[in-house]
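Support request from a user on the community tier.

User writes: "When I paste my structure tokens into the form, the page sometimes reloads and wipes my input. The last time it worked, I copied everything first. Here is what I submitted, just in case something in the input itself triggers the reload:"
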């Protein structure tokens, strides 16, 4: 605290001393005046000792008259008065009818030698004109006793020069004032030789220019610094504050700014001078708030903005001083000062609170704000009492420069110390992080493997078949666990690389692998999409010495990164030989990378700002692999234009070629290729006959039946004519790609019904494969390892069989539930009928036998029957009910006899029974049941409609949600839900009836739905 008080004392003392020295003539009352009774006698000693002489003393003054220099002063001797200069003339003059006050100053200067002499005029208010030896030598405005010709100027400091005559200079000054409260020669008139006055004026001009330009340069430096990072708002507001303060300095004293803008009138100049001060005060307030936000409330900021905005509008926009009298001007001056001073005092108060909290570096801000407060007080004194502020601007500039240079130095040193400490901590934390990632990844692998094994076991049905919904959930768990496992692998790879534990197996790899990866990714993209993937790689280029698997991973990561950040345009891959290396470039027309983020783009877990996708590992892993394979990688980018990633791989030497790189002779096979093995049939689809041969050998050794084709069209034909249990599809094929073939197959066969394994050149767990998932159950990376392939096939076949067993078991359970209900109702009807009509009873027994035949057929035919058999059962049941209800039941059939599809047995009859028993029989007058089976586009539309009592809305919602116990509806609806692509709709209105609509896939689809 003592240090702060000492600083405040020193600064106030400095300003007091500077102010006193600049205005000592105003404080030395008893000094000997140069001018006595209108005459100033200058001797040679005075000129040599003091090059500038202040013409203070009693001037001859002629109030209320402007005496032309051509007339003799003695003619106005009666009006002559002695007036001390500098001082105001208020007690000597009287305003005329138009409110103008005029007067003539006269001084005779006697000089020791003939020569050129000059005057430095500081402030003569308002309009004035100077004559020396009868000649006009300078003027500011036009002093006149009439408003019509009266004109003022805002530039009040200037110099005039003249040659002495008979060692005398007869000086006459005309002065006119309109509305200033203090007028006349208010500041000292300085006299000297022409060279002395010029030097004196130029020094003042240079001093003002130095201060103004220094402020503005200082402000621009801070604005440029802020523009480079846009994070430190205090730099922005301080830069604005200093820049505006520099502009203000150029508006006052020598008014350097207005010398370059001579066209600006007095009103405009005054409005600029008064308008810029609220802006300076606002910038200062925002600066203090940015530095110490916890000490200034937003409410205070809003109030200060309103206050300063009002002041700016009144004094800078509306020009309040024009056409106002002296009293109004004084009032406006007081209002202006009263508005600005509270803002300065508030900032001083905030600073005081900062000091009380002992914030680090606050004493440097203290120097600045105390200096500013002192200067503001001097401005108020100048504004109110017209006292000059010589050298105060220079002192303020020096103190501001010192305070903020010291503050920046202090913060830089503090920041450097913190950065150094943080760097050491980060280094230790980075090592700990790497160790943590390695250990965590290793620890995660064991439970993940256990989850994968358990989920795989459940899918394969080793513990008994699961329901279909349960099996789908297990598959989802298995897939998500796989993805998590792949992420753990990436984390482990990245961490191992940092620890130097990544192993690679380089060999000679042909350049063609680049086109393999590109072509496969291209097949995943839309041909008419906004992004084009272009390969400019010549397959005749020499081989590289690299790890093929890792090289593909690098290329894929770079391509996937470009795809993620390119909305439209193209991505191009090029390759060329430079020296002993192959140089591969991946360029795109995407969003580009901001310049400030380029150096971090390859860091682990780093993502571009506002990027939400991924974990930031792809580019880091690519860099790690490239460096491990003795290559280099870098990136160039233009934000908003695109990026170019360049990496190198060493070329393979002759001795590095192995048998694996020898050319494979093309095998030409006679397709389709059939092999009869066990009951499980595998369909192989690959346009590379060499790959078909390798896969066929592996399948033959395992005893599978297989069919091999080399295009997607033949594969679809095989599916239409043969029972297939599993498919192996090459992702990159001519004609129909593997991706498109998967989509077509999935239209008719779901993921449990027909497993698909895709053979791909891209990383098997790549994000692109997962995001463009086309329905494949699993992926295998080329070249195929036979053991891995057979393990995957066995697992997927087991999952398929488990799914079939689960459906069969659930169907049988549903049939077991429905049978007693139907038999009971039917027998009661027949017994009642036997008492009335034996012939009808016999006929009813025939229809009952039809039902039992259908029931027995269900057990032999895996729970699926043709729709014609189910309709036969429905007709049998309705005949019996018709016999029982007689005229109360009306039956309407609207059935397309050409429709022949497979549906679950006993699925329509319970729905019809529900319509009759719960709908029609409950109405006294009975009703109508309509059964309609029609084609609806590619679908088969089954409708069962009745006009019975309907279902209350609350019960209808329970039935739709499956939360009800009405078996006649519940079981049939569950059966249809087991059919892929089937949909059901249930409509009912109480008192009007119920409608059940079932939409099933057409004949062609249903043919492939069950095997």
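"...and here is what came back when it finally went through:"
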């Amino acid at each position: 605290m003592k240090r702060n008080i000492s600083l405040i004392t020193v600064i106030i003392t400095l300003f007091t001393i500077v102010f006193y020295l600049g205005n000592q003539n105003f404080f030395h009352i008893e000094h000997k005046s140069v001018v006595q009774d209108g005459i100033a006698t200058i001797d040679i000693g005075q000129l040599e000792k003091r090059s500038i002489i202040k013409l203070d003393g009693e001037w001859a003054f002629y109030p209320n008259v402007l005496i032309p220099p051509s007339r003799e002063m003695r003619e106005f001797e009666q009006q002559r008065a002695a007036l001390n200069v500098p001082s105001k003339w208020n007690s000597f003059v009287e305003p005329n009818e138009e409110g103008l006050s005029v007067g003539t100053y006269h001084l005779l200067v006697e000089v020791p030698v003939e020569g050129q002499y000059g005057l430095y005029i500081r402030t003569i208010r308002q309009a004035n004109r100077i004559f020396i030896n009868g000649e006009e030598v300078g003027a500011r405005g036009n002093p006149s006793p009439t408003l019509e010709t009266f004109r003022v100027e805002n530039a009040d400091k200037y110099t005039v020069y003249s040659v002495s005559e008979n060692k005398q200079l007869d000086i006459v000054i005309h002065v006119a004032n309109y509305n200033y409260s203090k007028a006349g020669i208010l500041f000292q008139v300085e006299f000297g030789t022409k060279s002395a006055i010029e030097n004196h004026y130029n020094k003042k001009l240079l001093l003002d220019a130095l201060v103004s330009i220094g402020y503005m340069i200082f402000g621009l430096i801070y604005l440029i610094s802020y523009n480079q990072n846009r994070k430190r708002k205090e730099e922005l507001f301080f830069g604005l504050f200093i820049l505006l303060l520099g502009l203000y300095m150029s508006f006052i004293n020598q008014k350097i700014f207005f010398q370059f803008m001579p066209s600006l009138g007095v009103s405009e100049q005054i409005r600029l001078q008064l308008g810029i001060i609220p802006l300076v005060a606002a910038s200062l307030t925002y600066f203090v708030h940015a530095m110490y936000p916890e000490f200034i409330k937003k409410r205070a900021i809003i109030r200060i903005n309103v206050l300063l905005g009002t002041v700016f509008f009144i004094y800078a926009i509306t020009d309040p001083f024009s056409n106002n009298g002296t009293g109004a001007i004084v009032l406006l001056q007081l209002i202006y000062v009263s508005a600005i001073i509270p803002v300065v005092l508030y900032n001083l108060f905030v600073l005081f609170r900062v000091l009380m909290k002992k914030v680090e570096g606050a004493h440097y801000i203290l120097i600045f704000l105390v200096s500013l407060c002192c200067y503001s007080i001097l401005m108020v004194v100048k504004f109110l009492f017209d006292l000059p502020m010589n050298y105060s601007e220079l002192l303020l500039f020096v103190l501001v420069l010192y305070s903020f240079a010291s503050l920046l130095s202090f913060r830089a040193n503090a920041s450097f110390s913190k950065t150094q400490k943080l760097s050491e901590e980060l280094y230790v934390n980075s090592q700990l992080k790497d160790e943590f990632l390695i250990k965590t990844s290793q620890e995660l692998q064991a439970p993940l493997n256990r989850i994968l094994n358990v989920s795989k076991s459940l899918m394969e049905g080793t513990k008994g078949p699961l329901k279909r919904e349960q099996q789908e959930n297990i598959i989802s768990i298995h897939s998500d666990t796989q993805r998590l496992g792949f992420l753990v692998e990436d984390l482990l790879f990245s961490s191992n690389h940092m620890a130097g534990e990544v192993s690679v197996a380089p060999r000679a790899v042909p350049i063609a692998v680049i086109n393999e990866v590109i072509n496969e990714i291209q097949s995943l993209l839309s041909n008419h999409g906004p992004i084009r993937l272009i390969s400019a790689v010549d397959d005749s280029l020499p081989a590289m010495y690299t790890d093929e698997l890792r090289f593909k991973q690098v290329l894929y990561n770079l391509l996937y990164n470009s795809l993620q950040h390119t909305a439209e345009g193209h991505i191009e891959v090029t390759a060329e030989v430079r020296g002993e290396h192959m140089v591969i470039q991946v360029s795109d027309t995407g969003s580009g990378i901001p310049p400030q983020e380029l150096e971090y783009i390859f860091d682990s877990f780093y993502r571009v700002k506002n990027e939400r996708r991924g974990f930031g590992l792809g580019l880091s892993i690519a860099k790690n692999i490239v460096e491990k394979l003795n290559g280099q990688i870098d990136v160039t980018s233009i934000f908003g234009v695109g990026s170019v990633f360049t990496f190198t791989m060493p070329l393979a030497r002759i001795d590095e070629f192995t048998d694996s790189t020898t050319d494979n002779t093309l095998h030409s096979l006679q397709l389709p290729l059939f092999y009869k093995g066990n009951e499980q049939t595998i369909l192989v689809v690959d346009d590379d006959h060499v790959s078909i041969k390798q896969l066929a050998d592996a399948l033959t050794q395992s005893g599978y039946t297989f069919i091999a084709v080399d295009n997607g069209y033949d594969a679809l034909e095989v599916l239409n004519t043969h029972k297939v249990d599993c498919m192996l599809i090459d992702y990159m094929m001519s004609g129909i790609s593997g991706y498109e073939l998967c989509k077509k197959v999935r239209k008719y066969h779901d993921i449990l019904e027909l497993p698909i394994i895709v053979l791909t050149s891209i990383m098997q767990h790549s994000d692109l494969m997962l995001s463009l998932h086309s329905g494949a159950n699993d992926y295998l990376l080329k070249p195929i390892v036979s053991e891995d392939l057979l393990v995957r096939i066995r697992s997927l076949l087991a999952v398929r069989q488990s799914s079939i067993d689960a459906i069969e078991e659930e169907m049988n359970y549903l049939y077991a539930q429905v049978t007693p209900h139907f038999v009971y109702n039917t027998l009661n009807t027949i017994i009642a009928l036997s008492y009335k009509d034996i012939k009808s009873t016999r006929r009813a027994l025939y229809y009952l036998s039809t039902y039992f035949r259908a029931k027995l057929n269900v057990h032999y035919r895996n729970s699926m029957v043709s729709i014609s058999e189910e309709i036969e059962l429905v007709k049998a049941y309705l005949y019996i009910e018709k016999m029982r209800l007689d005229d109360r039941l009306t039956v309407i059939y609207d059935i397309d006899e050409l429709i022949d599809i497979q549906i679950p047995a006993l699925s329509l009859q319970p729905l019809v029974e529900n319509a009759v028993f719960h709908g029609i029989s409950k109405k006294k007058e009975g009703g109508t049941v309509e059964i309609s089976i029609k084609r609806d586009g590619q679908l088969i539309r089954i409708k069962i409609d009745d006009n019975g009592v309907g279902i209350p809305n609350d019960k209808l919602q329970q039935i739709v949600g499956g939360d009800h116990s009405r078996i006649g509806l519940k079981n049939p609806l569950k059966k249809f839900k087991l059919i892929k692509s089937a949909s059901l709709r249930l409509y009912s209105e109480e008192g009007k009836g119920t409608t059940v609509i079932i939409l099933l896939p057409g004949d062609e689809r249903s043919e492939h739905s069950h095997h």
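Agent notes: The reload is a front-end session timeout and is unrelated to the input. Residues 660-666, 858-862, 1004-1011 have pLDDT under 50 and may be disordered. Residues 381 and 387 are 7 Å apart (CA to CA). Escalated to web team.
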